[in-house]
Task: structure prediction
Amino acid sequence: MILIISLFLLATEIFIGQNFSHSQDFQGQPVIERVAVVSRVIDGDTIEIEGGEKVRLVGVDAPELRSIDPVERELAEKAKEFVDKLCPPGSEIGLNVDDLEPRDRYGRVLALVYIKDGDIWVNLNVELLRSGLAEILYMPPSEFNPYELK
Result:
C-alpha cells in the first residue's frame, strides 16, 4: 500500500510539474506556439513584431525608460540594449503565449519569448533575469511562474 501511495505522489508531482509551466514539452524543448519577426524593441520587456502587435515578456519587469530617476533610466536603457542585441529588428522570435492571461490591460500579448542561438531556442525572459537587468514580476493568473523558469 505504501508503494502505491508513493507511486501516486510521484506521478502527481511529475504531472503537476510538467503542466504547471507549459514552457517546455516532454522532451525538454521549448513550446513555440507562434513565430514572429521583430519590428523594434520598445524597452527592456516589450517588443513590437511585424504587423504592429506588441509582445510583453511575461514574468519579468525591466526598469522604465521614462523614470524620473536617472539611475533607473540608465538601467532601462541597458535592458533595452540587451534585448535589442539578442533580437534586433528583422530577427525571428518564438512565442509561447500565456494561455491563462494572453493579453495585459494595454492589449500587449503576454508571452515567453525565445530567440535562436544556432539551432537552439533560448528563453529571452530567463536571459534578461540572469543578466540582472530585470526583476521577476509574477501577476497571476498566469500559465508561467517566473520563479520556476529555467
About this structure: The chain has one domain: 31-148. The longest helix spans residues 2-20.
